[in-house]
Amino acid sequence: MELKVSCLAERPEMLGRVVGMATTWPEFLLHDPVGDAHYGRIAAELPEYVLFAEDEPGHVVAHAYSVPFALAEMDRGELPARGWDEVLAWAFADLRRGTPPDTVSAISIVVAPQAQGSGLSAWMLSAMRDNARARGFDEVVAPVRPSAKHLEPWTPMEEYAFRQRADGLPYDPWLRVHVRAGGAIEAVAPASMTVAASVEEWRDWTGLPFTAQGPVEVPGALSPVHCEPERGYAVYVEPNVWVRHRL
Asked: Model pTM?
Protein backbone atom coordinates (compact mmCIF):
# COMPACT_ATOMS: atom_id res chain seq x y z
CA MET A 1 0.00 0.00 0.00
CA GLU A 2 1.49 3.33 -1.09
CA LEU A 3 0.67 6.10 1.38
CA LYS A 4 1.13 9.84 1.51
CA VAL A 5 1.44 11.76 4.80
CA SER A 6 0.41 15.43 4.83
CA CYS A 7 -0.05 18.23 7.36
CA LEU A 8 -3.56 19.61 7.68
CA ALA A 9 -2.24 23.20 7.76
CA GLU A 10 -0.89 22.67 4.25
CA ARG A 11 -4.06 20.98 2.98
CA PRO A 12 -6.98 22.60 4.85
CA GLU A 13 -9.46 21.32 2.27
CA MET A 14 -9.00 17.87 3.86
CA LEU A 15 -10.42 18.91 7.25
CA GLY A 16 -13.77 17.19 6.75
CA ARG A 17 -12.21 13.92 5.64
CA VAL A 18 -9.69 13.91 8.49
CA VAL A 19 -12.16 14.57 11.30
CA GLY A 20 -14.72 12.29 9.64
CA MET A 21 -12.44 9.25 9.47
CA ALA A 22 -13.95 6.20 11.16
CA THR A 23 -12.37 5.14 14.47
CA THR A 24 -12.70 2.21 16.85
CA TRP A 25 -12.65 4.07 20.19
CA PRO A 26 -14.97 2.60 22.86
CA GLU A 27 -18.05 4.79 23.15
CA PHE A 28 -17.41 5.79 26.77
CA LEU A 29 -14.04 7.35 25.86
CA LEU A 30 -15.85 9.91 23.72
CA HIS A 31 -17.49 11.37 26.83
CA ASP A 32 -14.46 12.65 28.73
CA PRO A 33 -15.41 16.31 29.33
CA VAL A 34 -11.88 17.64 28.79
CA GLY A 35 -11.61 15.83 25.48
CA ASP A 36 -15.11 16.98 24.59
CA ALA A 37 -14.08 20.59 25.16
CA HIS A 38 -10.67 20.53 23.48
CA TYR A 39 -10.01 17.60 21.14
CA GLY A 40 -12.07 18.98 18.26
CA ARG A 41 -10.25 22.31 18.54
CA ILE A 42 -6.91 20.81 17.53
CA ALA A 43 -7.74 20.43 13.85
CA ALA A 44 -9.38 23.87 13.74
CA GLU A 45 -6.87 25.89 15.78
CA LEU A 46 -3.62 23.91 15.56
CA PRO A 47 -3.75 22.32 12.09
CA GLU A 48 0.04 22.38 11.82
CA TYR A 49 0.05 19.66 14.49
CA VAL A 50 -2.43 17.40 12.67
CA LEU A 51 -0.98 14.86 10.24
CA PHE A 52 -2.92 12.42 8.09
CA ALA A 53 -2.16 9.55 5.74
CA GLU A 54 -3.94 8.87 2.45
CA ASP A 55 -3.92 5.65 0.46
CA GLU A 56 -3.62 5.55 -3.34
CA PRO A 57 -7.35 6.22 -4.01
CA GLY A 58 -7.14 9.24 -1.67
CA HIS A 59 -8.92 7.82 1.39
CA VAL A 60 -7.75 9.06 4.79
CA VAL A 61 -6.57 5.94 6.60
CA ALA A 62 -4.81 7.39 9.66
CA HIS A 63 -4.27 10.63 11.52
CA ALA A 64 -1.99 11.87 14.28
CA TYR A 65 -2.89 14.76 16.57
CA SER A 66 -0.42 16.58 18.82
CA VAL A 67 -0.33 19.89 20.71
CA PRO A 68 2.45 22.28 21.72
CA PHE A 69 2.61 23.45 25.32
CA ALA A 70 4.96 25.05 27.85
CA LEU A 71 6.18 22.30 30.19
CA ALA A 72 8.69 24.67 31.80
CA GLU A 73 5.98 27.17 32.67
CA MET A 74 5.69 28.14 36.36
CA ASP A 75 3.99 25.47 38.53
CA ARG A 76 4.51 22.78 35.86
CA GLY A 77 7.95 21.33 35.11
CA GLU A 78 6.90 17.68 35.46
CA LEU A 79 4.68 15.55 33.30
CA PRO A 80 1.27 15.67 34.99
CA ALA A 81 -0.48 12.86 36.82
CA ARG A 82 -3.65 13.90 35.00
CA GLY A 83 -1.91 13.08 31.72
CA TRP A 84 -4.04 13.47 28.61
CA ASP A 85 -6.64 15.73 30.24
CA GLU A 86 -4.07 18.05 31.80
CA VAL A 87 -1.86 18.45 28.75
CA LEU A 88 -4.87 19.33 26.59
CA ALA A 89 -5.94 21.98 29.10
CA TRP A 90 -2.38 23.35 29.32
CA ALA A 91 -1.98 23.54 25.54
CA PHE A 92 -5.12 25.58 24.97
CA ALA A 93 -4.49 27.79 28.01
CA ASP A 94 -1.04 28.54 26.57
CA LEU A 95 -2.52 29.22 23.14
CA ARG A 96 -5.03 31.66 24.64
CA ARG A 97 -2.37 33.51 26.65
CA GLY A 98 0.25 33.51 23.93
CA THR A 99 2.71 31.52 26.07
CA PRO A 100 5.57 30.19 23.92
CA PRO A 101 5.58 26.36 23.92
CA ASP A 102 8.69 24.31 24.61
CA THR A 103 7.34 20.75 24.21
CA VAL A 104 4.98 18.82 21.94
CA SER A 105 2.62 16.23 23.38
CA ALA A 106 1.10 13.44 21.34
CA ILE A 107 -2.67 13.38 21.78
CA SER A 108 -3.78 10.56 19.51
CA ILE A 109 -2.67 8.33 16.68
CA VAL A 110 -5.68 6.68 15.07
CA VAL A 111 -5.76 4.16 12.24
CA ALA A 112 -8.98 3.58 10.30
CA PRO A 113 -10.55 0.13 10.86
CA GLN A 114 -9.79 -1.11 7.34
CA ALA A 115 -6.08 -0.22 7.65
CA GLN A 116 -5.32 -1.60 11.10
CA GLY A 117 -2.55 -4.17 11.44
CA SER A 118 -0.49 -2.65 8.63
CA GLY A 119 2.12 -0.85 10.75
CA LEU A 120 0.58 2.56 10.14
CA SER A 121 0.65 3.57 13.80
CA ALA A 122 4.46 3.35 13.90
CA TRP A 123 4.69 5.32 10.67
CA MET A 124 2.44 8.08 12.03
CA LEU A 125 4.45 8.22 15.26
CA SER A 126 7.61 8.74 13.21
CA ALA A 127 5.87 11.47 11.19
CA MET A 128 4.75 13.18 14.41
CA ARG A 129 8.32 13.17 15.73
CA ASP A 130 9.60 14.58 12.42
CA ASN A 131 6.93 17.29 12.44
CA ALA A 132 7.88 18.42 15.96
CA ARG A 133 11.57 18.45 15.06
CA ALA A 134 10.89 20.50 11.93
CA ARG A 135 9.06 23.07 14.07
CA GLY A 136 12.07 23.54 16.32
CA PHE A 137 11.20 21.26 19.25
CA ASP A 138 13.66 18.83 20.77
CA GLU A 139 11.17 16.69 22.66
CA VAL A 140 7.85 14.92 22.18
CA VAL A 141 6.02 13.44 25.15
CA ALA A 142 3.11 11.03 24.94
CA PRO A 143 0.44 9.97 27.47
CA VAL A 144 0.24 6.50 25.95
CA ARG A 145 -2.87 4.31 26.17
CA PRO A 146 -1.31 0.80 26.14
CA SER A 147 -3.06 -1.20 23.46
CA ALA A 148 -3.34 -4.53 25.31
CA LYS A 149 -3.97 -3.24 28.84
CA HIS A 150 -7.74 -3.63 28.39
CA LEU A 151 -7.14 -7.41 28.48
CA GLU A 152 -5.85 -6.99 32.07
CA PRO A 153 -8.08 -4.34 33.67
CA TRP A 154 -7.31 -5.56 37.20
CA THR A 155 -3.54 -5.35 36.81
CA PRO A 156 -2.15 -2.10 38.29
CA MET A 157 -0.74 0.14 35.57
CA GLU A 158 2.41 0.62 37.67
CA GLU A 159 3.07 -3.10 37.18
CA TYR A 160 1.90 -3.38 33.58
CA ALA A 161 3.72 -0.33 32.19
CA PHE A 162 7.19 -1.56 33.13
CA ARG A 163 6.69 -5.23 32.26
CA GLN A 164 9.23 -6.42 29.71
CA ARG A 165 9.68 -9.31 27.31
CA ALA A 166 12.78 -11.49 27.32
CA ASP A 167 14.41 -9.14 24.77
CA GLY A 168 14.06 -6.17 27.14
CA LEU A 169 11.34 -4.43 25.13
CA PRO A 170 7.98 -3.55 26.71
CA TYR A 171 5.38 -6.29 26.95
CA ASP A 172 2.65 -4.02 25.58
CA PRO A 173 2.61 -3.71 21.76
CA TRP A 174 1.95 0.05 21.60
CA LEU A 175 4.53 0.84 24.28
CA ARG A 176 6.92 -1.35 22.31
CA VAL A 177 6.36 0.79 19.18
CA HIS A 178 7.19 3.92 21.16
CA VAL A 179 10.37 2.46 22.62
CA ARG A 180 11.53 1.16 19.25
CA ALA A 181 10.99 4.67 17.87
CA GLY A 182 13.34 6.06 20.50
CA GLY A 183 10.98 6.79 23.39
CA ALA A 184 11.64 6.07 27.05
CA ILE A 185 8.93 5.08 29.52
CA GLU A 186 9.04 7.69 32.27
CA ALA A 187 6.04 7.40 34.58
CA VAL A 188 2.43 6.39 35.00
CA ALA A 189 -0.24 9.08 34.66
CA PRO A 190 -2.72 7.54 37.14
CA ALA A 191 -5.66 9.82 36.29
CA SER A 192 -5.06 10.62 32.63
CA MET A 193 -8.75 10.73 31.69
CA THR A 194 -11.93 10.74 33.76
CA VAL A 195 -15.44 9.88 32.62
CA ALA A 196 -18.18 10.40 35.21
CA ALA A 197 -21.76 9.79 34.14
CA SER A 198 -25.10 8.42 35.26
CA VAL A 199 -25.58 4.66 35.42
CA GLU A 200 -28.19 5.07 32.67
CA GLU A 201 -25.57 6.56 30.38
CA TRP A 202 -23.09 3.79 31.19
CA ARG A 203 -25.77 1.22 30.40
CA ASP A 204 -26.39 2.87 27.03
CA TRP A 205 -22.67 3.02 26.19
CA THR A 206 -21.78 -0.52 27.25
CA GLY A 207 -24.93 -2.65 27.33
CA LEU A 208 -24.00 -3.71 30.89
CA PRO A 209 -26.50 -3.62 33.80
CA PHE A 210 -24.51 -1.41 36.23
CA THR A 211 -26.68 -2.57 39.12
CA ALA A 212 -24.01 -3.76 41.59
CA GLN A 213 -22.03 -1.42 43.80
CA GLY A 214 -18.27 -1.47 43.25
CA PRO A 215 -15.87 -2.09 40.36
CA VAL A 216 -17.29 -3.14 36.99
CA GLU A 217 -15.19 -4.65 34.22
CA VAL A 218 -16.05 -2.87 30.96
CA PRO A 219 -14.81 -4.02 27.52
CA GLY A 220 -12.15 -1.62 26.27
CA ALA A 221 -11.50 -0.04 29.67
CA LEU A 222 -7.96 -0.17 31.07
CA SER A 223 -9.19 -0.39 34.65
CA PRO A 224 -12.56 -1.19 36.25
CA VAL A 225 -15.32 1.43 36.35
CA HIS A 226 -16.52 2.28 39.86
CA CYS A 227 -20.31 2.01 40.10
CA GLU A 228 -22.57 3.59 42.74
CA PRO A 229 -26.05 2.46 41.62
CA GLU A 230 -27.85 3.76 44.71
CA ARG A 231 -26.42 7.20 44.01
CA GLY A 232 -27.03 6.87 40.28
CA TYR A 233 -23.54 7.33 38.89
CA ALA A 234 -20.39 5.50 37.80
CA VAL A 235 -16.87 6.86 37.33
CA TYR A 236 -14.01 5.66 35.15
CA VAL A 237 -10.48 6.93 35.83
CA GLU A 238 -8.07 5.83 33.11
CA PRO A 239 -4.35 5.47 33.75
CA ASN A 240 -1.92 6.11 30.90
CA VAL A 241 1.86 5.88 30.59
CA TRP A 242 4.13 8.87 29.97
CA VAL A 243 6.73 8.21 27.29
CA ARG A 244 9.39 10.80 26.48
CA HIS A 245 10.93 11.07 23.01
CA ARG A 246 14.13 13.09 22.70
CA LEU A 247 14.50 14.33 19.14
From this structure: 0.96
Closest CA to 239 of 83, 65, 73: 83
CA distance to 150, 192, 223, 231, per residue, from 120 (Å): 21, 25, 27, 44
**Residue 57 within a domain:** yes
pLDDT digits (tens, 9 = 90+) for 137-167: 999 999 999 999 999 999 999 999 999 999 9
Q: CATH no. for residue 147?
A: 3.40.630.30
Is residue 118 assigned to a domain?
Answer: yes
The answer, yes or no, to whether residue 1 has pLDDT greater than 80, is no
Provide mean pLDDT across the span 46-50. 98
Give the domain range for residue 80: 4-193+239-246
- DSSP3 helix / strand / coil % (the chain, rounded to 5): 35, 30, 35
